[in-house]
Q: What sequence folds into this?
């Protein structure tokens, strides 16, 4: 069964392109990737916070958050 | 032809385990992953710097560096 991988971001175009490349570089036979735009889906900010996300962009694989390239603080999205 | 992906780190055990999971989660049919321990291979610090790496752990896919989880500054490894 594929493991869940969630890519949280806030829509910044430059970092979006670079970071999507990372999210879509994961092994498709092992991971089911979901992209979540927290600027548009504010109802999922709490979910991201509960997964240990403190800044975006962040990629959560299973329960492990990977914060990428010193992004914007999650608090700024509330 | 598989694209090169290089995972630079400095050997911290906790982050090592988490970040290797990210490096080895890449699609093996599209990426050739190399792990570089900059604490042991100091001769490759300049290379990492030239790839745009400013802190470790970092994953470089092609020419795009992804700094992960606010790691140690590359300068501390010189």
A:
């Amino acid at each position: 069964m594929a493991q869940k991988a969630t890519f949280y971001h806030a829509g910044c175009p430059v970092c979006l392109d670079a970071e999507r490349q990372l999210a879509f570089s994961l092994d498709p036979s092992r991971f089911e990737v979901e992209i979540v735009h927290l600027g548009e889906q504010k109802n999922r900010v709490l979910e991201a916070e509960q997964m240990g996300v403190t800044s975006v962009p962040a990629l959560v694989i299973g329960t492990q958050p990977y914060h990428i390239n010193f992004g914007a603080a999650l608090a700024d999205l509330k």
In short: The interface with chain A takes residues 5, 18-19, 21-22, 25-28, 30-31, 59, 61, 64-70 of chain B (CB under 8 Å).
